[in-house]
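Q: Convert this sequence to structure tokens.
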Amino acid sequence: MFTMPYNNVILTLLVICWLCSMGNSASIASKIPIQSHITGGYKNSLTKKNDISKLDCSQFNNDYDVLQQFPFPVLLNPIRHLYNQSTATMDENNIFVKKIYIHEEEVVPLSVFCLSKLDTLSIVMTPFENDIVPDALLNLKLLSSFWIYNSSILKIPEQLGTLNNLGTLIFDNCSLTHFPNLSKLENLWIIERCTDVILCSSDNIIVMILMSFNF
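A:
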């Protein structure tokens, strides 16, 4: 059986998912000049811990406020995607955060779930508090792509299947042993390489289990 090197598989998946999430970015770039700059890095952020009781989105006036309260720097509107730095990409009107990429930080800030217009959430080598994806994930009603790579997670909200726009799930090198029921989601791609995870079965869900290959 032909096998592709694992790193090449991951890179290919990254490129595919990124291109799919880009949409009509080319036409957007021609209309509105994109300015890249650093935001975040607020070391005393009250939203650093993943304590659901501390999630108060009313304290933020806009998505820029949310990013500024992150306990680590974020490159806003990068000209090209950087895989070794946390980045955020705004919508075509520079009002809402559409894509967020968190790379090798101390913890995923709970306030990320205040970005209610978020389309793509990518977590790389960054843990959730207590290795639990909080129920606050359900605030992201427009989320279409959710990717966790090399970040230990023991639990994910059972209501994940209520995110009706979710089209792509990529969980690679995590610690899940149970997967929520996602049978109500249409045309969902799941790319999974966790440990002993039990996936739901449904005709409308396409599952690619990478752990069964010899990389």
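The chain has three helices and nine strands.
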